[in-house]
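Async update (no meeting this week)

Hi team, since we skipped the sync, here's where things stand on the single-chain job. The sequence we agreed to prioritize is pasted below, unchanged from the tracker. I ran it this morning and attached the output directly underneath so nobody has to dig for it. Comments welcome in thread, and please keep replies under the output.
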Amino acid sequence: MPVLPVQDFDGFLSRKPAQLAEGPIAIILVEDDVEVLRTVRHHLGVGFRHILLLSRLAIDLPEEILPRVTQLWHETLRPNAHVAGVNGVIKAVPPGTWLYYCFNAEFLFYPFSESRTVGELLTFHTEERRSAMLTYVVDLYAPDLTRAPNGVDPDNAMFDRTGYYALGRKGPGGQHRERQLDFHGGLRWRYEEFLPADRRRIDRIALFRATPDLKVTPDHRFSIEEYNTYACPWHHNLTAAIASFRVAKALATNPGSRERVRDMTWRNSHRFDWRGQQLMDLGLMEPGQWF
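Output:
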């Protein structure tokens, strides 16, 4: 497979090329070489018009998908690497452009994703006067770490079908923020002793419209508070989910946890069937008024 040319991040964005003229655009931050092609194919398959791969690695991709992917050099292993990456793209695209961001070995699912494109999803969300969409990061993990020592096994992936909860989100003065919650569950909940307190939430505003002065924060929230809400004031809205091997990779390979995490399965582990309907049936995302 050909190696995707790596372009300078700032130089490419400053030219405002045609690839940035129209969304939805997916930003994928590549932290290692695990399941990069699968991640790219999945997001092209759900209908993203173009993908920006932010990576310090040279990525091999099939020639037929190269026109829809641009690789930009970005140091993704530095702390909070998504902040500079996502905020740089926000400034470069036309206001109102729908953007999405994730990491390699993460996969977006949404209600009816088996039959509808992400463009259809976002068109409806826009009509509901929403500029951002809450996504839940649902941890995937290998059922057998002796066969998949990095915690990643897409063909036999498991996830937690229960054990999710939400707490009211408080502002600086201790008051509860309207229509904002902190969500918890999955591996981040079961192995919380290995994660800093500010990395234990599973909510992420991964789908959003670019607007002047908008910025993403280190904890995956946004500088505009309405973007951080799970619904509008008058009814429930669409939510989506990101099926992610990212925490499993970290637990299985980091020195502080790899010797102590021998088996990630428990009584509530369930086989992941790679369908959005499965996540919707379990309440891990909801269709709102979209039928």
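Quick observations from my side:
The mean pLDDT is 94.
The longest helix spans residues 81-92.
Reply here if anything looks off.
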